[in-house]
Amino acid sequence: MKSVLHKANTRGHANHGWLDTNHSFSFANYYNSDRMHFGVLRVLNDDTVAPGRGFGTHPHDNMEIISIPLQGDLEHKDSMGNTAVIKEGDVQVMSAGTGVYHSEYNRNKDKEVKFLQIWLFPNRKDVQPRYDQITLERGKMHNQLQQVLSPSAEDEGVWIHQNAWFHMAQLDAGKTVDYALKDATNNGVYAFLLDGDVTIEGQSLNRRDGYGLWDTQHIQIKADSNAKVLLMEVPMKM
To answer: In terms of residue numbers, what domain contains 194?
Structure first.
């Protein structure tokens, strides 16, 4: 088993007033040659957007973009004609493919919105752009791993053009869960701790720490306190 640890306080950080953001991997003005990506996981941004503010219309292409709200309401509009509001408990995906424009704004004028913005390199280029979102069944996340993303439209959660699976779990203190990789030959797992404290394969993690593991078939997660964790299984080679 190989691993890489990214403690929360080692992430890139920028505060633009309307946007307070932390970058697990090189992004915008943050550059670290040792932290360009984890396999096909290119971007993991932990964003807080001020009331009524947001990202104006901007382009993307050939990227799988996943947004996971953690607090508040995020309004999305895109050039495919989609207008939607996503909030905590939702997962949104956009396959940029041949090219798409979109905007993201904090819908509320009186409170912040917090969300994860995640980019994965696709396994197919120049696909037809597409958009989807789901609302998770919260009970399915309690003390177990709930699948929220996969490569198949027939499987649970949203789907993307990549051999990747995301799972989330809300764990009570003392609970242990195991995760078996879907494709242990080619994939690794990047764990991002949303809240609390856990131990993964002997490594202690705290809130907003990231931990990547590969060359393994399974991992064990033990909650040292009440905790919420996101697991991202992704191909290690692009």
So the answer is: 138-235
Residue 155 placed within a domain: yes
For tokens 């989807």, what's the residue? 132
Question: Alpha-carbon distance 193 to 39, whole Å?
Answer: 19
In degrees, rounded to 5, the angle at the alpha carbon of residue 226 between the alpha carbons of residues 221 and 230 is: 50
Q: Domain for residue 51, yes or no?
A: yes
Residue 183: exposed, middle, or buried by beta-carbon count in 10 A (0-12, 13-18, 19+)?
A: middle
SS (H, E, C) 27-66: ECCECCCCCCCECCEEEEEEEEECCCCEEEEEEECCCEEE
Helix spans in the chain (H): none
- Give the number of domains in the chain: 2
Q: Where are the beta strands (DSSP E) in 83-236?
A: 83-87, 90-95, 100-106, 113-120, 130-135, 146-150, 158-159, 165-171, 176-180, 187-195, 198-200, 203-205, 210-214, 218-223, 227-235
177 with 196, same domain: the answer is yes
For 140-185, the pLDDT digits (tens) are 999 999 999 999 999 999 999 999 999 999 999 999 999 999 999 9
CATH number of residue 97's parent domain: 2.60.120.10
Task: Among 102, 135, 168, give the residue marking a domain's end.
Answer: 135
Give pLDDT tens digits for 180-207: 999 999 999 999 999 999 999 999 999 9
Query: DSSP code of 197?
Result: -
User: Does residue 163 fall inside a structural domain?
Assistant: yes
Q: Look up the pTM and report it.
A: 0.97
